[in-house]
Specification:
By secondary structure, this protein is an alpha+beta fold. The protein has helices at about 20-30, 55, 75-90, 100-130, 135-160, 170-175, 175-185, 190-200, 200-210, 215-230, 240-245; strands spanning about 5-10, 35-40, 65, 70-75. Helix 1 packs parallel to helix 3, helix 1 packs across helix 7 and helix 5 packs across helix 9 (about 200-210). It is globular and about 55 Å long. The structure holds glutathione (GSH). Glutathione binds near residues 20, 61, 62, 76 and 77.
Amino acid sequence: MSDLKPLIVWRYHDGGLSPNPWKVVIFLYELGLPWEMKIFDRTDPDVRDKEPMVSLTPNGRMPVLEDPNNGLKIWESGAIIEYLIETYDKTNRLSYTTPRENYQLKSWMHFQMSGQGPYYGQRTWFLHLHHEPLPSAQERYANEVKRILSVIDKHLTRTQRHWLVGDKMTFVDLMFVPWNTLLLMFMMGPDFSTEWQEKYPRCWEWHQRLLAVESVRKAQEFTQGNVQKDPSATIEVKSVEEIEGR
Ligand SMILES: N[C@@H](CCC(=O)N[C@@H](CS)C(=O)NCC(=O)O)C(=O)O
C-alpha cells in the first residue's frame, strides 16, 4: 500500500476526543494505510457554510474522509468504515463474506451507529453540555448506556465467543471502542468500572481485549496526544460524581 496517497480525515478542533473521528483512525492504523488529519475551526460560526466543508458533507458533523487515490469524499463514520473495509481489506481479514456472518456484521454495525453512538452522545450532552441540569434525562441516558452494555454482554454470554460475529475480531468489534473508552473518562466516571465488571463481565473482558489491540492503542495515543499538544482545546468537564451529587 506504499504507493497510495495519504487518506485525509477531517475533524473539528475540539481536543481530539471526538469518538467518531477516533473510530476512523483505528481503522487507518489497523489497515496500515497512509493518512493525515485536517482540522476545522469550530469557533468560526460560518465554517459549515464555507468551502471546503460544503463540498465535503451536507451535515456539518465529523468525521469526513477524503481518498485522493480516487477522489471520493465520504461522511458518516459507519459509511467511512464500510468504505475502508470494502476497499482496503482485500483479504477480508476484518469481515466475512458468508451471508449469515455478513448480515450479522451489518446488524452490529447499525446497532453501533444508531444505538451506542447516539445514546452515549445524549448521555454526554445532558451530563456536561445542556444549559440546565435535567436529572431525568441524565438518568434516562445512563440507563440506555447500561442497556447497550447488557445487550453485548448477553450476546457474548450466549455465544461463548470472544468477538461479536464469528470466531475472529472483525470491524464491528473495533467500532465500539472509542465510545466505550469515553464511558470511564467522562460519561459514567472511573468508578463505573466496578459496576461494568460486575454486571457485564463478558462485555468488560471484550472491551479489555480490544484495548490491547495495537491499532486501538495507537489510535488512543494519537487522540490523547492531540489533547496534550493542544491544551486550549481540552474539553473541561466536571466529574460525574459532582454533577450527580454522589
Ligand atoms: N453519525 C455521525 C455523527 C457525527 C458527529 O456527531 N460527530 C461529532 C464529533 S464525534 C461532531 O461533529 N460534532 C460537532 C457538533 O455537534 O457541532 C457519524 O458517526 O459520523
